[in-house]
Amino acid sequence: MGEMDVAKGDTREPGVFPAAEPCPACGATGCRTLLTAEDCRFRTTEARFPVVECDGCRLIRVEPQPAPELLRQYYPPVVPMAVRTPTLSVKALWEKFLLSSHLRFVERALYESGETGVTVDVGCGQGSFLHHLKERSVWPVAGLEFSLPAAADAWRVHEVPAVCGTLSRAPFAPGSCAVITMFLVLQRLYSPADFLDAAHTLLAPEGRLIVQVPNASSWQFLLFGSQWMGLDVPRQLIFFKATDVENLLKECGFEILRRQDFTLRDNPAMLVASLFPGLDPEIRKARQLAEARGLRFWKNLAYHALFVLAIPLAFLESACHAGATVMIEARKRQ
Questions:
Q1: Which of 66-75, 84-93, 159-168, 258-267 has the highest mean pLDDT?
Q2: Phi, psi (5° rounding) for residue 259?
Q3: Which of 167, 217, 220, 164 is CA-nearest to residue 189?
Q4: Using CA atoms, how far apart are residues 231 and 44, in angstroms rounded to an integer?
Q5: What is the number of other CB atoms lying within 10 angstroms of the CB of residue 314?
């Protein structure tokens, strides 16, 4: 299906209708339209995409899914990093602060697993998380990234070994990984189960899998609907609820160990970006907007002030198990 076909939107009558493809979770062919959404984040297309709910298992997804060659066009180009941020700079300290909940979650998994293999971050981007994890631990780390420029930056700027490829063809021996992390990755895949099967093979006997996804049962989704930045249409194809992820992990041979509904980097950011997308520094950077230095300073200041104010609200929804993201630790079923 081409972009112009998607752009026409969903003109089908309300109610259950046959899907173009069976549900990836239960195989049911019936679904109902919840909403139509556009690219509110990066504005790479003016098309609108139907978001549907499976009539069988209630999994929410884009229907029909964009073809792979079209999906690649919806990702903005990676802006190369010039130099590494000095360790004690305000920017580096802020980055470390934002990643603190991710780092603590992974470190606990490493200690409790007792494994000493490599920690692989799938979708590592430019390597910021692995860079900070490497500073805090003695375990070897490696990144797996879909974008070649991002993987190159991970090597060049953060000195993190990273390769461009998929988990099913990753250059790691079976049973060699102590931890595999997938932060905000699973919902972007055409076949999440295949990735989880590959992770199951690569993990050591007591290794840990850590998966984080936007939460389709969050208060933010209920409040903002198609304008919620957690949807990130059209780059995200499936919108998981916490129970959806848990069921998928169990079907792929994993045992759930713990769940966390709040991460400092993502939950407040999704709230602020949904309200004021024009203030988010990452969105502005990806859109490559031309801004005067003074305007950029005041936008950044306003964004960070709103981010701090949003932390208690994001924490409150997470305390009610309705946070904007959910992060789950699992291991191979014994």
A1: 258-267
A2: -135, 145
A3: 167
A4: 15
A5: 27
